[in-house]
Amino acid sequence: TQLTPWNESPLGAICRAAGGGTPSRSNTSYWQGSIPWASVKDFSGESIYLRGTDEHITEEGLLNSASNLIPPNTPLICTRMAVGRCALTVVPTAINQDVKALVDLSGIDPKFLVRALALRGQELDRVAIGSTVKGVSTEQLLALRLRYPTTDEQGRISSVLDTLDAAIEQTRALVDKLKQMRAG
Q: Which of 1, 64, 106, 136 has the fewest C-beta atoms under 10 angstroms from its C-beta?
């Protein structure tokens, strides 16, 4: 089989970044609602999926803040503190100002994009600036150059990696169970 050349372009040529915000903490009616609200602490680097968040906001909190509700299957990336950590939403999720949603994808599969960005996380972290809290600007993020194959090949690569991730997760669960048995 003949290999097809991979495309290379800045991230900004294949998507745009949408930001978020934090509802006022002094207004308790904005918090402890049903809307997952993602912040940097929710990104573990262990999974490509963001399956849950520590905090939730209300509809009122969403409407009265700069936060945005991001649809499922949208890549998210941290641009402050844990720069470069990324995940894919599985449910509609609001985001704070330290997270960017990559929307309006053109020619790239969301799962492939999250994995490609995860490989480049250290590069983003190296260009991050700040004396107390390191971060990258939206311009720096969108200037990041990515290489990617055709969408068909992206799907095949993601499928293989999904299989490997499932095997790793099953192995972790077995190891945890065996540790509990040994402790017992």
A: 1
The confidence score (pLDDT) of residue 132 equals 66
**C-beta separation of 158 from 109 below 8 A:** yes
Determine the Cα angle at 159 with ends 154 and 165, to 5°: 120
156-159 long-range Cβ contacts below 8 angstroms, 24+ apart: 157/112, 157/115, 158/109, 158/111, 158/112, 158/115
What lies within 8 Å, CB to CB, of 38 at 6+ separation is 20, 50, 53, 76, 89, 93, 94, 95, 96, 99
Cβ atoms of residues 7 and 154 within 8 Å: no
Low-confidence ranges of the chain (pLDDT < 70): 1-3, 131-132
